[in-house]
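Sample 1 of the test manifest.
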Amino acid sequence: MNITADIPAGLVRQRIERLQEAMQTEHIDAFLITQNIDLYYFSGSMQNGYLFIPSTGEATFYVRRSFERAKLETAVRVAELGVFRHFGQTLLHDYPSLFRDGVELRIAADLDVLPAQTFHKLSELLGASGRCSLIDGSAHIRRLRMIKDPLEISRIEAAAEVVAEALNESLNELREGVSELAWMARVEYELRIRGHIGQMRMRGYNQEITTGMVISGAAAAVPTYFDGPAGGLGLGAASPQSVSRSIVKRNEPILIDIGCCIDGYVIDQTRTAVIGELPVTLKHAYEVSESIILATEQRMVPGTLCSKLYEEALASCAASGLSDHFMGYGADQAKFLGHGIGLEIDEWPVLAKGFHIPLEPGMVIAVEPKFTFPGQGVVGIENSYLITEHGAKALTRSKAELIVLP
Amino acid sequence: MNITADIPAGLVRQRIERLQEAMQTEHIDAFLITQNIDLYYFSGSMQNGYLFIPSTGEATFYVRRSFERAKLETAVRVAELGVFRHFGQTLLHDYPSLFRDGVELRIAADLDVLPAQTFHKLSELLGASGRCSLIDGSAHIRRLRMIKDPLEISRIEAAAEVVAEALNESLNELREGVSELAWMARVEYELRIRGHIGQMRMRGYNQEITTGMVISGAAAAVPTYFDGPAGGLGLGAASPQSVSRSIVKRNEPILIDIGCCIDGYVIDQTRTAVIGELPVTLKHAYEVSESIILATEQRMVPGTLCSKLYEEALASCAASGLSDHFMGYGADQAKFLGHGIGLEIDEWPVLAKGFHIPLEPGMVIAVEPKFTFPGQGVVGIENSYLITEHGAKALTRSKAELIVLP
């Protein structure tokens, strides 16, 4: 098997140590990592199994399948999971100093994604190994993953390059009369041949995305369940968001909100295009989105509160008379300006009300001011930025302007 | 908004009534449907919210977003979810005869997919409305969804047609020297322009799939975490299954295991192709997979136990000396012969040990005997069948034969 570890051993160790530090501060005795993305982050492998991390000492990746492959992918100690109903006994055997008689343990897990059925099973099995409570540790994981290391940043940059190339390659086929779906298929082809894994992972329950969306005119402004600023008519009630079979028309906004996932990492960017000319109101709104993103870019220095960036964007919208159209319309407005990206498209931090976290170097954030006009369409722009000590550095490669096609 | 219901009101009512019958038998007082796919099945809408179904009386879909869109998509009564922390009070108000003082309620939910964090929140909120326990009702949902109605069957047939067309359109580009990824991109393009929603949904935690896989030679035989008979090298540790950048070579098996999702419903099929000629051992194994699928097809009449079909396939493998290669190799063998398909790719029934459920008319099952040869590749065939009163009817449209390219 031509398989090698793609996260260096030192980096895996460092990530585990950072989690152990958080565990010690929070009086957590051990962490059980269950989700494939979290497994990959902390071990370098997303084989099927459970990664057990004690607050001090060596972690073990208990693998159900494929044990052989996991051994090649990770620097963490790997063991066969074996019969699942004996998992509690296995831990008791492997970590005797942790599971001592009479000691009540607090074991954390990624409960924001772990299904309740498996949670109950794990609680029962861990109960057999002593007195344990399985508590929610997902916030610790999300907090750690918020700060990207150089390897992660280089992968997001690679994804940014792929999206820029795919957009360039496809633009000459964006014409009056093509359907949203047909042109999206073309963009997705260009992304895929460049190594897009075929989907962009989302952490949120019931949320799904393939490569974003290309939505035009009135079809773009249809609200959806998707927790984002633009919806899209979609392909029916069983796929009620993103591209539809609507035909791209002259003088209507075309929102090109696309991304991809390269070597595990996603990028997210939006450009607005028009064949001909935008209606005056929408042109104005697009310009406001440009001015908001520029102002946000200036303000994104370490120490600025995420919530503050959202509030300032809201103030700009109010000053421009566009409050009702910002990030959706009416009851279906999304309540944020941007979001962290990385292994998943919906990471922390969120530029939103109540998110009083100060920016830190290493955060990567997609900022996406958009305006929705029912019956007319959606306009806006989205760039992804790395927060550095000196301020925001744009990772997005596509030219930041309205795309006007003849 | 040009949005209409795509599941007739009568059918939605019938599905809810079937669940209510199961609830009455099992002494469940109400059901809370939380997952997008389950929501779509029971309401016709997958907007973000909770569908509350009492064991008798009218259901309510409490929608967070988009309320406006949900009203157009479903025949079920729709209400705004409102402030989530008041959800228990809302139910108490809307269903006073259910939430009576002193009565302990058993409320079921789809706990096989609902994240533990949300489960705990819902338990707390429902607790506020009286004494309630939130129990696992996922088996009831899976059992009901096992039997497809004519609308569902027609959609699976539409998906089968799309896959057959996409395969035909792409085969002339399957040549020596093309990469798995590049040819898969081509297949996916053909699927997408015909309405594939961009992904095939899976119920299993940590399982993901876009359009299946095209895997060739040694790269196909690499084991993965994915719970299926073939793995694939994938695009790195962050996407460790399915297509890789491996180059398709002459005289090696090319496993084309593809599907798509049309109007919510998936199809799953596999064909084996070769440019030139298969090695003798693999040619023989391919012929055994053909004879197993034909024998299974004959045996798939109502009343046959699912477990029995798996056992008979195992016996055929043993008789052919291929037991070690069946559905993966060694420790990484998958333990099934086939699986239900519908809204998700991993539905019930499963043709596996211990699955002592008799076949019934309306089941749709993908049967996929495959053989793995480390270092050489994977061969096999997969068709999807509808169980009728008279036996199995193939839904797969592609010709059931080894594809030999010059």
